[in-house]
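In the design runs reported in the main text, the only information available to the sequence generator was the tokenized backbone. The following block is the verbatim input for one such run; it is reproduced so that readers can re-run the procedure and compare outputs position by position.
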């Protein structure tokens, strides 16, 4: 399927254009290893057409895929994997669980027994190593990035290696779903899955919902996409159009299921009548922004029972994060240019502000909500042309139970990641083969 996405006129070696194999030099000067975003958009367009949706991905999603990869040194990939493992280790500690559940909504204290599905851990790369900016449950893009990574591998230069095997992502997703199901519902057979979002067809990543639906169906499951209002809870089962549902792949951003339209799903979940992934417990355990305050607090981690290696890993990787409170508001306002302000339960950079962009009106609104102040970590950059301005880079690691599944990058301009930047969007992550990494000094 992806052979059609071969790079046009791609060079098979970067020797001539970038003799220096450091990731920094490649991100600055290498423009010859590319996939073709138009071919990938065409694949998604055909998927939409099969569902009766007539849409030009070139018009609706022109900047979903970047044409160039991002280069990351092997050491940074190893460090990111260590952070992923360390976060999961801390999440298992009773003292950490008790602390984060103290500020979580009541529904989050119900532990259905499973980790809660795939996580997306977002990093900025610095000269001193990767910095963990935030953690997300139900992270978008994993199947899209697997497509992109496979297209990139076709024209992989011999000096580079992929950071993970995208061909195994589909099987890994199915194993995650099976694990979530069995940990929540025991030995019963999984038959039906619904992908639930408040407005599926209106979501920018709706094409990925279709990829998930196709994936589930190929593995023998009934799979539908619906809104929460379409669900009905009765007779100890959750139904869609009169048919029972076993598992909900939850793409809602109402993480505590508080909105009226989520009543049936909330009721079924609390009653134990449906498996839900991700669930409110997972969001409270991993994705609440206040958790970064604890993950970066060496004293707390030591008292909670973290191993010395885990403590060192997280102390180095977590930017300074503080809860905005009456006690520190004046100091934070004076020093606001050094911080990014994020709502505790936020997602997708919504209602998040760089300190240098804050007005007094917004600052007063922040005082009435739960916000954290996170020290600004400047992202690394990737030039996409010889004459253009460089784009900012975020690295996302998709992971489950402390193990990295797939690495991807997002290229963008502006305050936060978006899909509105020409030349930007999702990008594959490549790293140097070991011999070349040693020659390049493993530097960023």
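Verbatim output:
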């Amino acid at each position: 399927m992806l052979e059609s996405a071969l790079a046009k006129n791609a060079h098979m070696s970067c020797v001539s254009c970038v003799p220096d194999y450091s990731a920094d030099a490649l991100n600055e000067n290498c423009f010859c290893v590319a996939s073709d975003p138009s071919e990938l958009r065409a694949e998604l367009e055909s998927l939409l057409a099969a569902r009766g949706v007539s849409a030009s991905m070139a018009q609706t999603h022109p900047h979903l895929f970047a044409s160039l990869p991002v280069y990351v040194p092997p050491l940074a990939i190893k460090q990111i994997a260590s952070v992923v493992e360390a976060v999961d280790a801390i999440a298992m500690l009773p003292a950490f669980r008790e602390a984060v559940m103290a500020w979580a909504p009541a529904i989050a204290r119900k532990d259905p027994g499973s980790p809660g599905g795939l996580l997306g851990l977002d990093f900025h790369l610095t000269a001193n190593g990767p910095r963990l900016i935030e953690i997300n449950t139900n992270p978008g893009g994993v199947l899209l990035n697997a497509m992109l990574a496979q297209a990139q591998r076709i024209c992989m230069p011999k000096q580079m290696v992929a950071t993970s095997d995208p061909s195994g992502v589909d099987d890994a997703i199915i194993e995650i779903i099976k694990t979530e199901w069995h940990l929540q519902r025991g030995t019963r057979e999984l038959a039906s899955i619904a992908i639930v979002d408040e407005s599926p067809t209106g979501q920018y990543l709706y094409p990925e919902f279709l990829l998930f639906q196709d994936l589930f169906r190929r593995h023998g499951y009934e799979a539908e996409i619906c809104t929460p209002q379409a669900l009905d809870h009765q007779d100890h089962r959750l139904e869609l159009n009169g048919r029972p549902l076993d598992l909900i792949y939850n793409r809602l951003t109402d993480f505590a299921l508080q909105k009226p339209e989520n009543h049936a799903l909330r009721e079924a979940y609390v009653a134990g009548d449906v498996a839900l992934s991700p669930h409110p417990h997972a969001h409270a355990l991993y994705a609440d922004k206040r958790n970064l305050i604890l993950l970066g607090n060496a004293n707390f981690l030591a008292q909670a029972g973290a191993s010395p290696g885990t403590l060192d890993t997280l102390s180095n990787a977590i930017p300074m994060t503080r809860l905005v409170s009456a006690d520190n508001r004046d100091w934070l306002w004076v020093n606001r240019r050094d911080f990014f302000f994020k709502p505790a339960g936020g997602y997708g950079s919504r209602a998040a502000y760089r300190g240098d962009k804050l007005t007094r009106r917004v600052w007063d609104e922040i005082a009435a909500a739960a916000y954290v102040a996170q020290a600004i970590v400047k992202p690394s950059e990737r030039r996409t042309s010889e004459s253009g301005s460089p784009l900012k880079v975020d690295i996302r690691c998709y992971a489950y139970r402390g193990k990295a599944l797939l690495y991807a990058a997002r290229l963008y301009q502006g305050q936060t990641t978006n899909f509105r930047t020409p030349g930007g969007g999702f990008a594959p992550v490549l790293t140097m083969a070991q011999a070349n990494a040693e020659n390049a000094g493993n530097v960023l």
